[in-house]
Amino acid sequence: MSEAVANPKLAQIIETVKALTVIELSDLVHALEKEFGVSAAAVAVSGGGAAAPVAEEAPTSFKVTLTAGGPNKIAVIKVVRELLGLGLADAKAFVEGAPKMVKEGIEKPAAEELLKKLKDTGAEAKIEGV
């Protein structure tokens, strides 16, 4: 185990990571980025120990989330049925269970069109970069 870390859980994690292949490490980094919504961008450290600022990348993939059904739930249910190919009962449960992600991994124009369709029915929805 690593003697540099006093916490035995952390030392065990470090030992496990040391045993991974480069491809496994890459997969781990991507999984952690997705799980925690962060980026593992490299940060240069100056001689004084202060970290250099990291440039933010503009998201290229977006997700649309239905946050509330709004006052006209029937119209929202119809749109959700059309967009997701759900049956009536499933679409009703989807709308009533908001907030729910409608679609993920779509480009910005498609996300904006989807958002417009939902908002035109009176639903509350939002777009987030992934």
- The CATH superfamily of the largest domain is identified as Ribosomal protein L7/L12, C-terminal domain/Adaptor protein ClpS
Strand content: 15-25%
Supply the CATH architecture of the largest domain: 2-Layer Sandwich
Give the distance, in angstroms, between the N- and C-terminal Cα atoms: 36 Å
Provide the structure class. Answer: alpha+beta
Helix content: 40-55%
Task: State the helix count.
Answer: 5
Domain count = 2
Radius of gyration: 22 Å
**N-to-C SSE string, H for helix and E for strand:** HHEHHEHE
Question: How are the strands ordered across the major sheet?
Answer: 2-1-3
* Poorly predicted runs: 42-48
- Compute the number of strand runs: 3
CATH class of the largest domain: Alpha Beta
Task: Give a brief rundown of this model.
By secondary structure, the chain is α+β, with helices and mostly antiparallel strands. It has helices at residues 8-18, 22-36, 73-84, 88-96, 108-120, and strands at residues 62-68, 100-106, 124-129. The protein has five helices and three strands; from the N terminus they run ααβααβαβ.
Task: Please explain how this structure is put together.
By secondary structure, the chain is an alpha+beta fold. The chain folds into 2 domains: 1-56, no CATH class; 62-129, Ribosomal Protein L30, Chain: A (2-Layer Sandwich), CATH 3.30.1390. The protein contains 5 helices and 3 strands. The chain has helices at 8-18, 22-36, 73-84, 88-96, 108-120; strands at 62-68, 100-106, 124-129. Strands 2-1-3 form a 3-stranded antiparallel β-sheet, with helices on one face. Helix 3 (73-84) packs across helix 4. It is elongated, with a radius of gyration of 22 Å.
